[in-house]
Amino acid sequence: MMIIPLSIFNIDLSTGNIILFTSLLMFVAILLAKVGIKYGVPAMLLFLLIGMLAGEDGIGIRIDNLHVTEFLGHLAMTIILLSGGLETSLEETRPIIRKGISMSTLGVFLTIVITGSFIWFVLGERIGGAGKTLMGCMLLATVMSSTDSASVFSILRSRRLTLRENLGPLLELESGSNDPMAYVLTILLVQIMESLESVSGISGTWHIILLGIWILFKQIIIGFGVGMALGHAARWLLTRISLSSSPMYSILILSITLFSNGAASFMGGNGLLALYITAIIIGNTKDLPHRKNILLFSEGITWLAQLMMFLLLGLLAKPSEMGKIMGPALLIGLFIMMIARPAGIILSLLPFRGLTFRAKLLASWVGLKGAGPILFALYTVLEGVDGSSEIFNIVFVITLLPLLVQGMTLSPMARLLNLSIDDDPEVMTFGMEIPEEMGMLRDHVVSEQDLTGGDTLRDLRLPHGIRVVMVRRDNRYLVPHGSMKLMVGDMLILILGDSDD
Predict the structure, then answer these.
(1) What is the pLDDT of residues 106-133, one digit of tens each?
(2) Burial code of 316-344, b = ≥16 C-beta within 10 A, e = fewer?
(3) pLDDT of residue 6
């Protein structure tokens, strides 16, 4: 699978040497990620770039077995979605679940249609074989349509970015749930394109399209059903079984969610959707044993999966082949960032109230791409789709663009739109101090907008991990409780940190 040219490295290709080289790549990636986070550079972007530097056009590592690469990437994606599902709080998500689902389904569909139409009418055959047909343009747009859950989770949590209007849970739900949607649409379009080559006439074409729509609904229904069934079965089992150590619970959960993925796929459903729903149900089990240790285990293997996946996909990239498509790729990337995704998100949220236009703008700005689109592009290569090599190179360039532009500007954009709860550099804590591992102290002055959903502390629906420790009203200091009536001008002292419940 991995080949190191002997003309560059005078070493043999034993397993030990490959492990040695892989460990060095991981070590360098982690050190650079530490520096990058300090300056606002997403760790995922650095992992990709390090992989590119070590790849065939760099140091010279070449990966020949794309099937194994696709399998490892898909496995890593399942682990990332598992972590995202376990950490999704239904209590926080319930108020925004319809918005999140609309963004990850209707929003993705609208983004695909707008982007695919732009590619077809503006660029056409300039992008190669994929641009020769409208279906090929739509496939390219579909591959690029999802946001990357790993990138969104990483940026929001590594920077402890807390957003108003419940945007944090909304963005995490959308990024975690739109990968399954984009994946099934990619598979569907590839199958339709392959089928259309063997049929002729209007009736045959419509038959293939209607069959594709049925397959889409079948994938969603089976994926959702399997996820719900195995999620509730796992909840029942985990609250009744007694294992010898806490790591065994983590391994059991990993096996159940992977089984959910495989079972749904075997039945013709969407495995990623099934896994994500199973993980959400398990993560919201009230009496889940060793919850904290399970989440720590999940976080650890997720970082390992992200690191390995982005390094591996970086190794696949060939910068020498990207020059001829660089212009069209950048044009498509800018169009998605500035027009297609904002239009898709804003239109998908039109039926819902409770989000300001500023919040919708920020939600549309968090369109980070990552390993998902690259994996979907790799699938088109494995299936031999016309123009698949151009699709892969275009998607790779477009993946780097949002990570660089949107990933580095997310915090400033949130502050510019007054949607960051931590937008005041001078924090009034009245001499209070807490240990660093507990989180950070922040203050927040209650505004009229905060009280639109109700005037009690409970009605604020603070994001997960935020606790009010004190309320200052005029010159009085009040002990907070859920039924406390808040007033405009009250100052809340908050702790921003992880929570065990």
Answers:
(1) 988 999 999 999 999 888 777 777 777 8
(2) bbbbeebeebeebbebbbebbbeebbbbb
(3) 41
Largest CA distance in the chain: 80
In Å, what is the CA distance from 224 to each residue of 91, 108, 227, 229? 20, 18, 5, 9
**Overall residue count recorded for the chain in this entry:** 501
Is 151 in contact with 403 (CB distance < 8 Å)? yes
pLDDT of res. 331: 92
Domains of the chain and any CATH numbers: 2-416 (1.20.1530.20), 436-496 (3.30.70.1450)
The two structure tokens encoding residue 183: 């994946």
The CA distance from 288 to 284, in Å, is 8
Contacts of 272 (CB under 8 A, 6+ apart): 77, 78, 81, 179, 180, 183, 223, 261
Task: Say how far apart CA 131 and CA 56 lie, in whole Å.
Answer: 27
- Kind and range of the H or E element at 93? helix 90-93
Give dist(CA 310, CA 178) in Å, integer: 19
- Could you count the other beta carbons within 10 Å of the beta carbon of residue 46? 23
Tokens of 137: 């343009």
Helices first, then strands: H and E counts in the chain: 18, 6
* Spans of the chain below 70 pLDDT: 1-18, 35-42, 64, 149-151, 153-161, 196-205, 421-440, 463-465, 497-501
DSSP string, 351-384: T--S--HHHHHHHHH-----HHHHHHHHHHHHTT
- Return d(Cα 232, Cα 278) in angstroms, integer: 8
Residue 236 structure tokens:
């029942």
- CB distance 332 to 92 below 8 Å: no
Question: Roughly what angle, to the nearest 10 degrees, separates helices 371-382 and 134-143?
Answer: 140
SS percent in the chain: helix, strand, coil, step 5: 65, 5, 25
CA–CA separation, 211 and 201 (whole Å): 16
The whole-number pLDDT of residue 115 equals 92
Distance CA 273, CA 8 (A): 44
Q: What DSSP state is assigned to residue 414? A: H
Structure tokens belonging to residue 186:
């990619």
Q: Collapsing DSSP states into helix, strand and coil, what is residue 349?
A: coil
Give the residue from 252, 236, 246 showing the smallest Cα distance to 287.
Answer: 236
Q: How far apart are CA 9 and CA 280, in angstroms?
A: 46
Report how far residue 409's alpha carbon sits from residue 406's, in angstroms, rounded to the nearest whole number. 5
Residue 476's DSSP bridge partners are 473
Q: Quote the pLDDT of residue 235.
A: 92
Contact 53, 60 (CB under 8 A): no
pLDDT at 7: 40
Residue 318 identity (one-letter amino acid): K
